[in-house]
Amino acid sequence: MNDGPVPDRLDVGAPTQAFPGLRVRKRSSPWLHAGLLLVTLCSTTLVGTVLAGDAPFSLALLTRILRHPAAWTAGLPYSVSALFILGCHEMGHYIACRLYRIDASLPYFLPGVNLFGTFGAVIRIRAPFPTRRALFDVGVAGPIAGFVALLPVLAFGLALSTPTNAPPAPGEIGLPSCLLLSLLYPLFFDPAQGASIHLHPLFVAAWFGLFATSLNLLPVGQLDGGHMLYAISPRVHGIVSRFGTPVLVLLGFLTGGAHLIVFGVLFWLIGLRHPRPLDSVEPLGARRTAVAIFGLVLFLLTFFPMAPEVFGVLLFP
Under a CB-based contact definition with an 8 Å cutoff, are residues 88 and 115 in contact? Predict the structure, then answer.
């Protein structure tokens, strides 16, 4: 494990004024954050416009949408909802950092040429965590804030989605279920009404939020779940990180979850070490232990063993 703090690393931070010897890189311009947000708004709105239409995705459809910007308003419900969920997640980290006087950047939104129009968002924390409690609180604040934000979007998305017996068309995207969705589907749909669900764009935004939550809660490396587990037990974190990535890859092969294979290999390449907080003696206490149990339950509820399918529809579990 790392024997000391590592400054200027993603999602690792502490108040820079407390460590005058540390070198801190120049802060990014607010215009960079605003520009990335604008570009991500455009990319997600484009995806949302495709989702709002009846035609399956194709290059011809994308070309028609690009030629008619007025039609992009149909994609705003998806894009605004997706960015709202991502923004709440990152602002949860950011506000927790400010409460502990930890130097952190505003969120960087990441546009993407993919099924969701974005690769998510990150914040940059520039110095070591001062205590285990700070490490835990900053780690858990993002997933909880993002999850709370996606719940109303998910409820509206499920209410506006409709069962159908129509066969899947080429280009349609099937989104797999997690335990939480399996529990919610019977409350909104009657399986007798149709064998599959026509997904509303709001549901897709909430699904992406659930996917991001489950990914961040993986207890490895410097993910949010890794922060939480390291604050609880550095030794257990080291064991889980070391063996968790090959287990993730193996699970991906067994379930057909290509995303598990990709992220398992990616985490291994990035590195699984975690810097130690400056004060590693302070106990977490009973309340944070209860929050850690809630975080584990949240991870189990949102974990997706299978990846999205491009030529299918979401089937009832």
Answer: no
